[in-house]
Amino acid sequence: ETGVTQTPRHLVMGMTNKKSLKCEQHLGHNAMYWYKQSAKKPLELMFVYSLEERVENNSVPSRFSPECPNSSHLFLHLHTLQPEDSALYLCASSRGGLAVSGELFFGEGSRLTVL
Amino acid sequence: RKEVEQDPGPFNVPEGATVAFNCTYSNSASQSFFWYRQDCRKEPKLLMSVYSSGNEDGRFTAQLNRASQYISLLIRDSKLSDSATYLCVVGSRGGSQGNLIFGKGTKLSVKP
Questions:
Q1: Confidence band (pLDDT; 50, 70, 90) for B100?
Q2: Could you tell me how far CA B60 lies from the centroid of its own chain?
Q3: Neighbour count for residue A71 (Cβ, 10 Å)
Q4: pLDDT average, residue stretch B25-41
Q5: Of B48, B92, B99, B93, whose CA–CA distance to B74 is shortest?
Q6: Under the phi-then-psi rule, with left for phi > 0, alpha for psi from -120 to 50, and beta for the rest, what region is A31?
Q7: Which is nearest to A29 in space by CA: A67, A66, A73, A69?
Q8: Which of B49, B100, B16, B54 is nearest to A98 (CA)?
């Protein structure tokens, strides 16, 4: 059982829909992340939150909007997405700085299909 | 040059075989190195860190060559359960949390 849970596990949406992905971590970590995993591409970091403050936004289009109401919860709000946004969206958490420990704890991911 | 480059495979090997994966990275200022494992339709999980002196965990041995900017993972006596994608990950200081750069992964399939 993972300490990071994501819902929904699967989502199909039209380009005009608005939906949200939810992530919850039960590990007492202070940093949370959104990653995108597309076929035949490496994991791409989208957003980083540390102590509920966004500390990194990796040139992500504004149709993706993150929200971190507290250190245990992270949302990714989606609106007017494009078919090329179809991918696996992975939430992760870490205890502290990544450069040393390198340990990210991932959720099982939300597989998004945009029609 | 890609930041972290791996042979995508797939590597198809029989049970009991020894298999080695290689990875190169472009940022000479990189400070930390890891191998993650991702099973089919599952999330990535940390397999092991990679230290300059090399390190071993059971059947798994990781090595780092900073001069050549090269990382390797050796799996001895392969098991069916080793079938997965192995992700090479390189860490550097950047942003407030540091930064991890993932390779695309090398797929391993161990056959009976």
A1: confident
A2: 11
A3: 17
A4: 92
A5: B48
A6: beta
A7: A73
A8: B100
- Residue A108 is predicted with a pLDDT of 95
DSSP assignment of A6-32 = EE-SEEEE-TT-EEEEEEEE-S--SEE
Q: Do B104 and A42 count as a contact with CB atoms less than 8 A apart?
A: yes
| Dihedral angle sign, alpha carbons of residues A49, A54, A58, A64 | positive
How far, in Å, CA of A57 to CA of B13, rounded?
41
> Is A86 exposed, middle or buried, given 0-12, 13-18 or 19+ CB atoms closer than 10 A?
middle
Please tell me the total number of residues recorded for chain A in this structure.
115
Q: State whether B100 and A102 contact (CB < 8 Å).
A: yes
pLDDT at B59: 98
A interface toward B at CB cutoff 8 Å? 2, 31, 40-43, 45, 48, 50, 55-56, 90, 94, 96-104, 106-109
Residue B45 CA to residue A20 CA, distance in Å, equals 25
Higher-confidence residue of A96 and A34: namely A34
Query: What residues of chain B lie within 8 A of the CB of A50, using their CB?
Result: 96-97
